[in-house]
Amino acid sequence: MFRDLDPLLHSQVRLAIMSILVSVEKAEFSFLLENIKTTKGNLSFQLGKLKEANYISIKKSFKGSYPLTTCKISKTGLEAYETYVEAISDYFNEYRQGK
Q: What is the domain partition of the chain in residue ranges?
């Protein structure tokens, strides 16, 4: 039987954000923007959604005189990501077994 997929992570940009954050300690907004190839507004919106769900933390500071936004995955976010990856893997495994 197929498990439900987390609708919050079942979005291309949010899944990309989480996939990056799971492999680094933290990431700056500009790094995410460069690697995800979306607009600043969309990235900001999607980060807000992940923060609301407590999947990430966002720290705002300054680097010199420039604003700096840094994101970090939370324990809740890591658990949700791992569960999502397991669930989506089950979909593929189910397909392979059916062949």
A: 12-91
- Residue written as tokens 């680097």? 63
- DSSP secondary structure letter of residue 87: H
Distance, in Å, from the CA atom of 40 to the CA atom of 64, rounded to the nearest integer, reads: 21
pLDDT at site 54: 98
What pLDDT is stored for residue 96 in this prediction? 66
Fold annotation for 12-91:
Arc Repressor Mutant, subunit A (1.10.10)
pTM of the model: 0.90
Residue 96 vs residues 34, 60, 90: alpha-carbon distances, Å: 35, 45, 10
User: For the chain, what's the residue count?
Assistant: 99
> Cβ(82)–Cβ(19) under 8 Å?
no
pLDDT tens per residue across span 32-42: 999 998 999 99
Q: Around Cβ 71, how many Cβ atoms within 10 Å?
A: 22
Give me 53's structure tokens.
């769900």
